[in-house]
Structure of tRNA-specific 2-thiouridylase MnmA:
Amino acid sequence: MRVLAAMSGGVDSAVAAARAHDAGHDVTGVHLALARNPQTYRTGARGCCTLEDSRDARRAADVIGIPFYVWDMADQFHESVVDNFVAEYAAGRTPNPCLRCNEKIKFAAVLDRAVALGFDAVVTGHHARLGADGLLRRSVDDGKDQSYVLAVLTRAQLDRAVFPLGDSTKAQVRAEAAERGLAVADKPDSHDICFIADGDTRGFLERRLGTAPGDIVDSRTGETIGTHNGAFSYTVGQRKGLDLRVPAADGRPRYVLSITPKTNTVTVGPREALAVDVVTATRVIWHGEPTPVECDVQLRAHGEVVRAEVTVEGDTLTARLHEPARGVAAGQAIVAYRRDPGGDAVLGSATITAGVPVSSGPAEPAVAHA
């Protein structure tokens, strides 16, 4: 099989490319240049869009013995991921840029170009598995599992995806890289958001959206207890950085409960008010059996797993949680998993639109308001 190996410059993608080559595939490595100005993105080992990463990927391809190219996808990345990230925060939602990058760049723009050039599939270093039934499954390494950010892929995209690392732990991958003589064997994993050079998400958004002072309101009293410079700086479940003028009557900390861009208001309240037992979502990708179905749902990357009854009707997914969850934010993904002996299988995913508080009726969204 003729495959294109996406090589980020990290240890995972290098070992994935090497394994594909060992399996007898005709492998070509490609590094995606995603930064319009690489110097403005993270430097050193902390990022995935740097000049150093490009060089590391090229050196790994040389060791493996495969052709290597750099594809400039900066414009597509900026439009599909960076602009989307800013727009989602402006709308009071909390996006996941890694998920969007997988959906729009690695398994849309890259895959489309690869197929047009005659490649059969795209190989990546994601920690996930594809079962014999074609369903995406969790990695054997729970701590590194990336099925959550891949669950947005369509059936057609999964059919042309290869994930060679799903049956290995991260420690095993590093050991193998060292045995192969790959210089990236001990390279630290990338963290945070690759296109925010200094890690200051609030500052990044403020530079693009400007300041927009507004009120922070107590959910119980309706009193204005603080101000902010932009509701986009907050996410549901946030506790730190609220800078409230008036302490709570009971002395307990308060958390962001909802964000209303229309009035530029951030509403805060007690931790228990974050609890929701119904989650609604849209932009549904569903691979599983007809619903309703009992399954596990994950509401954030590396977040808690909750048992739920999931129903899909058209482009709307509704999850009725068996136990309340906290910090459910609009814009994040909800991913449904079926418990299987061979590893949890992804049934589908959708983008969260709202969560219903435990004490509320179905008409009271708790996550974000337009």
About this structure: The domain at 275-357 is CATH 2.40.30.10 (Elongation Factor Tu (Ef-tu); domain 3). The chain has three domains: 2-186, 212-272, 275-357. The first strand starts at residue 2 and ends at 6. Confidence is low (pLDDT under 50) at residues 41-47, 361-370.
